Amino acid sequence: MQDRNDTLPHAWGRWGPEDEAGALNLIGPAQVRRAASLVRTGQVVALAQPLSKRTPVPAHRSGLQHFMGRDGGDYAAGAKRPGGFSFAEDTVVMPLHIGTHIDALCHTWCGDGRMFNNYREETMRSTTGATRLGVDKMPPAVTRGLLIDVVALRGRTLHDGEVVSRQDIQACLAQDGLHIEPGDVVLIHTGWLAAQQGRAVVDFNAEPGIDHEAGLWLAQQEVAIIGADNFAIEVLPFAEGTVFPVHQCVIRDFGIPLLEGMQLEPLVRTGRREFLFVAAALPIVGATASPMTPLAIL
């Protein structure tokens, strides 16, 4: 990744030198009240992938492991039942960047070792995790959500490597009569995740997604979170000469977390493009990400 050029747009210092919440500071009581006023039917739509041993992950990550600590077999084998009481419990071991998850602001930095708000890579320790910008520093998000349905705009599922541009996002907004306001959560529907269903092998090196220009434009509209139904939010492969340019711009420069791997088809089927969005990360101290179940409340 490239060094941070301080002459380029960024949000470092905007909320003070000690800030670790980044763009989630844009969500305040006014944004919550505005979003709550959008609820019409009370329908709740969950936007998360199911998590299991079958949840696909890139080759460099381990998959989910699920172990039963106590189950019916233990009682069948003679385990005691004090007062007739029986119970089951289990343990899950998994990467935090799996399925539907949110990237913390400590997830990425650049060649000069600087993270969002000028925190240094030395704040990331193998013994403690992130001492700054960890996912535990991320406030809950209760705000307006906007669905950017690029599949509807194109009339088809997007191809691997197809760019979702700033103009595409603007066209979707114009088509639905919407405008981005500070503190909004923007969710981008590419069709990528739905297209992976049933595939024995998922290619995590090619997908449709936004490019750097689109990411910068969204950041400058003061969104709180950018989400999508793909692996990395941004288009893969990257533009020549770049590596994760959207992650660099959005997470590192503007403090905007990325909500990856969303299951957006249920929301698309409702026809709603504007809704109350609710999500909260697991407060895992020092973690670089958290699995999440985002909700759209209609």
Task: Give a concise summary.
With 298 residues, this protein is α/β, with parallel strands linked by helices.
Give a structural overview.
The chain has two domains: 22-54 and 96-297, Putative cyclase (Glucose Oxidase, domain 1, 3-Layer(bba) Sandwich); 58-94, no CATH class. Helix content is 20%, strand content 19%. It has helices at residues 29-36, 72-76, 150-154, 166-176, 192-196, 212-220, 245-254, 265-270, and strands spanning 44-46, 65-70, 89-93, 101-103, 124-125, 129-130, 141-149, 163-164, 185-189, 209-210, 225-228, 258-260, 274-279, 289-291, 295-297. The protein is globular, with a radius of gyration of 20 Å. It starts with 28 loop residues before the first helix and ends with a strand.
Range of helix content: 10-25%
What is the CATH third-level topology name of the largest domain?
Glucose Oxidase, domain 1
Reported for the largest beta sheet, the result is:
9 strands, mixed
- Spatial strand arrangement across the major sheet: 1-15-13-7-9-11-12-4-14
Secondary structure tally, helices: 8
Number of strands: 15
* Shape, per Cα inertia axes: globular
CATH class of the largest domain: Alpha Beta
Task: Let me know the CATH homologous superfamily of the largest domain.
Answer: Putative cyclase
Mean pLDDT: 96
* Total domains: 2
**Head-to-tail CA distance between termini:** 40 Å
Radius of gyration from the alpha-carbon trace, in angstroms: 20 Å
User: What letter string, H or E per element, gives the SSE order?
Assistant: HEEHEEEEEHEHEHEHEHEHEEE
Q: What structural category arises from helix and sheet content?
A: alpha/beta
Strand content: 15-25%
Low-confidence stretches: none
